[in-house]
Amino acid sequence: xxxxxxxxxxxxxxxxxxxxxxxxxxxxxxxxxxxxxxxxxxxxxxxxxxxxxxxxxxxxxxxxxxxxxxxxxxxxxxxxxxxxxxxxxxxxxxxxxxxxxxxxxxxxxxxxxxxxxxxxxxxxxxxxxxxxxxxxxxxxxxxxxxxxxxxxxxxxxxxxxxxxxxxxxxxxxxxxxxxxxxxxxxxxxxxxxxxxxxxxxxxxxxxxxxxxxxxxxxxxxxxxxxxxxxxxxxxxxxxxxxxxxxxxxxxxxxxxxxxxxxxxxxxxxxxxxxxxxxxxxxxxxxxxxxxxxxxxxxxxxxxxxxxxxxxxxxxxxxxxxxxxxxxxxxxxxxxxxxxxxxxxxxxxxxxxxxxxxxxxxxxxxxxxxxxx
Length: 372
What we know:
Blueprint: H1 29-35, E1 52-54, E2 57-59, E3 63-65, H2 73-81, E4 86-92, E5 105-107, H3 110-113, E6 121-122, E7 135-138, H4 147-159, E8 166-171, H5 181-198, E9 202-206, H6 214-217, H7 223-237, E10 242-246, H8 252-262, E11 268-271, E12 276-280, E13 294-299, H9 302-319, E14 325-329, H10 335-344, E15 348-351, H11 361-368
Parallel strand pairs: 3-4, 3-15, 4-8, 6-12, 8-9, 9-10, 10-11, 11-14, 14-15
Antiparallel strand pairs: 1-2, 5-7, 7-13, 12-13
C-alpha cells in the first residue's frame, strides 16, 4: 500500500492591492493626516517569522516603511498592524511647516521617466491602470506638525509598538536665508535629542528632499557639512542608533567621500530618497505649478537607480571596511524587489509610495521569505 507524499501547505490568501490608495491624492497632506488612512480592511494575519537583529533590537523582520506615509499615530497603527516592523515617523522639524498645496502626487509617462536625469519628465492625465508598479512624482515638501503635537504623537506611537517592531523618527534642520550654518547644525542635534526623548529607538537624519530649499535638500552632497551634522547629532544621541537618509549619488568618488565621512558617526545610511527631476505637463509648463519645477520621482524606474546606489555603497563599505549598514529604499513594490535588495546585501528594506496601494506588501514579503 503506497502512502501519498505530504502536500505543501499553501500560505493563506492575502488580499490584493487596493483599488483606491490609502493616501487620498485629492486631499492635502494635512487633510490626509487628520483623516487617517483611507482603508476599510481587512487587516490580514501577519505570519510569524524568526527574530532578527536590527541595530541591537530584536525584530520580526528587517522590512519597514520609509519616512513617507507614517504621518501620525493613526497611520503608524495602520502599518504596524500590517506587519511593517521598521516604522519611520515622517520627518519632524523644530517648528511647524505646512506642506505644498495640491497637487502633490502625479503619475509620469513611463517613456519619459526612463530617459534620464537631464530631460524633463512628463505627467499623464490620470492614474495609470497599474499604479503599484508605475512611476510617479511627488511634491509635498517636508511638512511638520508643531513640536507640541509631534512630541505627544511620537510617545503614542512608541506605546503602540508591537513585539518585534522598532520606531524610527526622521528629523531635519530648518534653514532660511537668515539661518547660519552653526544654527542649522544645532537644529539637527537638538531634534535628535528631542526625538530620542519622545520615544524614538532610532533617529534618522534626513539629508535629502527633492522639492525644498537647497540647503535642506542637498546636505548629502556636502561631505563636510554632513559629517559636522552627524557628529553633533551623535554627541546628543548617545547610544541611540543614528541613520542618514541620502538622495541618489551618481559619482563614485562623491559616494566614497560621504560614506567615509559618516563612518563612526552614524550606524547606517538609508538610500535613496526620491530623485529630484524637472516635472512638466503636456505644454511643457511646471506640472506642480510655479516655483515647483522640481519634484521627487517615486516607484517604478526608481528601483534601478536605488539598486545601483546600494551596490556602489556596499562596495565602498566593504572595500574601506567602514562601520556602516546600508538600508535600501526606492521602487519597493513587490516581494521580489524586496528580496532583490536583500540579495544585493542591504541590511534592511523600506517601502514608501507603494504602500499607498499595497498595504499588504510586508505580509506578502514575509510569506515569500520568512527570513527577510
